[in-house]
Amino acid sequence: SSQVTSVLTPMSQVNTSTVAVKQIYHPPAVTSVQRYRTTAPVLIPCEAPKDKVPHDLRQRYVNMFTEEFLKTTTNVNDAFEKALAEERTVYNRSVNKLKYQSVAVNALKRLKNQSAVAAKGGNLWKTQTFLNKMSDDMALYDSLKDYILTEERLIESNYPVQHPEKPGCAILFADNKKGNTDSLKRICCRCGATFSVSQTGKHIRKEECNYHYGKGVKNKVPGGVETRYSCCEGVMGAPGCQVFKLHVHDSLSLDGFVSTLPRHPGPDTGCPGVYSLDCEMCYTIHGLELSRVTLVNSGLQVVYDTFVRPDNEVIDYNTRFSGISEEDVKGNHTSLREVQETLLSFISADTILIGHSLETDLCALKLLHGTVVDTSVVFPHRLGLPHKLTLNNLTAEYLRRIIQESVCGHDTAEDAAACMELMLWKVKEDGKLKK
């Protein structure tokens, strides 16, 4: 048998330092990292005697891809499999050797950028970060164009847009804070009480908040309709069933925003990307702030997931709904600015972001982005705005699946994947009608 070159770069050429990938729920025990396979790795077979790309060239890029994945993956087997998948994607997108080299160079550059961000940000990337796009991603991207919100709909749905006079600031066209003109007064978003704060945003007095976390549900009764809270079955107007030490407000800061940018012109005109996004927020002295962000690709794989350290003092992590506790965020040093830097490294102005009522998520991320598919708009409430169906309702009706059942709160990865699945279903169903 003819001798073949190993796919893995010799260890003398590989940077042996590893980046420990963040495991949010189950941190692995510290063990020595396996750097060699116990069995010979499967090599790329020659496709044909007169293949469109020489086998040696493909092997060379597999080696380089492997070296980059080793920087963000603790297991050599995982790095090898990712490198093979990356090279296969490059090969499938190329019609000849020249195109292959162009696509491969761009892919390598992207991987190097991700490695640099991971090294700088400190364990920002999960093991599954940036797995390869499905071969039909471009077709999905083209199909989703029909659902992208128009500029008018973005404004109507209260998405943040660039402030015309203040760089780095956003404006919201819907005024949801009417009636409160005192800069040192806040309205509790739970019980409706007005409370005073200092110049720094801290409470002047410690007042307990009595509230209902459930919504009012109307039920038909003999003689009419009555409304009861979903949390405790109490009648509307009954004293709160929950008590918290302080009032909270849901204001959103509109400064510190960054904008996604157009893609750099170049030979690679592939898919700009399709990701589903979900965020969780906590209550701080200045209102709502980002505490977790998760992005999922069209293959329902998590490509980015991190807890985020709020800039201001936290009042309540809202664990019942966010699923986030003080322990999750306490030891985390990832700032909002670092999250923005990471997102801008792979999201351009043309990237399609999918989410449910994504305007709040973009405000929390302080991200100005106009290429949005909103499942609350694609699947509208029969009564129209401001009524919206919940994501739980949509997944139950269209995907025949129940989400958000955990008593520990929402799972951002589950919610993001649900939004992606809803749009995959929608594209498929609407495609049937066009045939």
From TrEMBL:
Its main location: nucleus. It is found in: Nucleus. The keyword Nucleus applies. It comes from the Eukaryota. This is Exonuclease domain-containing protein. SUPFAM superfamilies: Ribonuclease H-like (SSF53098). Gene3D superfamilies: Ribonuclease H-like superfamily/Ribonuclease H. GO terms for molecular function: exonuclease activity; nucleic acid binding. Belongs to the REXO1/REXO3 family. Keywords: Exonuclease, Hydrolase, Nuclease, Nucleus. It holds the Pfam family EloA-BP1. GO terms for cellular component: nucleus. Residues 273-432 form the Exonuclease domain. Transmembrane segments: none annotated.
